[in-house]
Amino acid sequence: MKNIRNMLVGVFLVGLVVWGVYDHLREQNELKFQENEDVISGIKIGIHEGEIAPNFKLSSLDNEEMSLTELKGKRVLLNFWATWCPPCRAEMPHIEKFHEEYKDQNVVVIGINLSYTEDSIEDVLTFLRKYNVTFPILKDEKARVADLFAIRSYPTTYMIDTSGVIRQKFQGAITYDTMKTSMDSMN
Fold first, then answer.
1. Which pTM value belongs to this model?
2. Which has the closest alpha carbon to 179: 96, 113, 104, 121?
3. Burial 113-122 (b: 16+ CB within 10 A, else e)
């Protein structure tokens, strides 16, 4: 009886490993497919100015999925942040003001919460209520998008044009005026 149980546990563990490898390979293939699509445009995919921002798909706090490619044709302010980050707290009112003033001008503000660094999602919700944040917040619970964009400092903000090309990258908190100047200089 003990041998059968050990065998079942072994089969279960092997199944988990196989599923994990499959899931990882599936995600890599999705990214490679996206890369192949965008290489045709003649612009390299990457995380630097002048490169096409890599695509990703994340869930919002309401569990609605959103991908970056869905936003092509719009200018995007993409902000990586965390509740425990003092510069993120200082920057958030500026981002909210920017969102309110630009939301009707073909501009989308997306916040990516570095959820894998948070104590709980409830902390994120409390933070958003405190700062009256109304723009979409996506959860990066496994650091996949933070790793994809090589996020090393918080906050980090990307300004992306209507073609999906990164026009500016800011590490550290930025002001409303910086956001406005950057966005106004893009198509």
1. 0.79
2. 96
3. bbbeebeeee
User: Mean per-residue pLDDT for 171-182?
Assistant: 97
How many CB atoms are located within 10 Å of the residue 158 CB? 21
Q: Is residue 46 classed as helix, strand or coil in its secondary structure?
A: coil
Q: Which amino acid, one-letter code, is at 34?
A: Q
Domain parsing of the chain, residue ranges: 1-40, 44-184
DSSP for residue 57: E
Task: Give the C-alpha separation, 157 to 155, whole Å.
Answer: 7
Q: What is the mean pLDDT of the chain?
A: 86
Q: Which residues contact 53 (CB under 8 A, 6 or more apart)?
A: 45, 47, 68, 78, 149, 158, 160, 164, 165, 166
- Superfamily covering domain 44-184: Glutaredoxin (3.40.30.10)
Tell me the three state secondary structure of residue 177: helix
Tell me the pLDDT tens digit for each residue of 1-18. 666 765 655 544 444 544
What is residue 15's three-state secondary structure? helix
Percentages helix, strand, coil for the chain (3-state, rounded to 5) are 45, 20, 35
